[in-house]
Amino acid sequence: MATGNDERKVPPLLRHTTARLGKKQLLELYRHLLVTRRTEDRLSALYRQGRLPGGLFRSLGQEAVPVGCAFALEKDDLIGPLLRDLGALVVRGVTPREIFAQYLGRADSPTFGRDTGTHFGDLSRGIVAPIAALGSNIAVLAGGALSFRLRGQKRVAVTFIGDGGTSTGDFHEGLNLAAVWKLPLIVVIENNGYAYSTPTAQQTRNTRLAERAKAYGIRGEQVDGNDVIAVVHATARAARRCRRGEGPVLLEMITFRRKGHAEHDAASYVPPELLEYWEARDPLRRLEAYLVGEGLYEAADLRAVDESITAEVEKASEEALAAPWPDPSLAFGGVWAEEPDPRRKEGR
Ligand SMILES: Cc1ncc(C[n+]2csc(CCOP(=O)(O)OP(=O)(O)O)c2C)c(N)n1
Ligand SMILES: [Mg+2]
Prior knowledge:
alpha/beta
């Protein structure tokens, strides 16, 4: 069948004989995927009600990539998510309440209502804010990785790039620098088939993006990005290499964007059969099938988890909707390092 990436092959559904993740960890992964999915479901509804002041860049169908990558890391590793990587924030402990406040532009949001979406960082949780100019984050996270090296720490920096983003000059410069300095950096390509409305095969001649690693003399690997366990293992393997001082790793996660570029985009350019193909490979459903099929959990247990998360998310969105708007006088504060935010002991 035709796919966004004509040449790519999709591996069969999840078949891990040994997951090497304990039962509790697998449930944690399931919870992170669900929190991400249900939070975005609710954000979609708010968007359609005209209550979000900004755009909504969903990760529907590709949540296993940010969730699995963040899950595989140690707490003091650094992560630089992109706008679509809500799942990485969830794993790092950002709550739905914070996410709703942020999307709704409320005073108690991580940016005090100054920005929307997932456009924020928090170094206390090891999160570097996204940069809108695609590819620039790679050099920034390479800088983080360099600082670990200079301080003799065994920490790793991880960041993400879309299939479209791999065609920027910054992708090349950042990765080349990290490679030549053998920095502990993992660059995760989220190959979700499209950049806006452009299929991957129309923006690059070689759609096996992991092969670009060869050009930099580093390790590259293709991973089934809709298999959250495979994502965790691949990231953990890459992190071990980085900690051994073997230099950066490029991981290409094969996945699919089952929504438009953002909520305003109906994605009419995506062939319906392609959507059906990827719906059948939904990362959440695949993990559910695995957990039940392996006899680890009953389907009813998982339904109960879903119901309680859906209720938590609903409560968080109601609380954020009732939260106050920011004081307009704060709009220009906190721009410079020497201007601490008036409501905090220390500025961000
Ligand atoms: C350097 C640069 N060029 C163009 C843009 C405009 N732009 C924003 S998102 C986007 C598409 C990104 O596609 P991809 O990298 O595949 O990520 P995805 O949206 O699929 O997650 C473009 C072209 C930008 N932000 N930065
Ligand atoms: Mg893309």
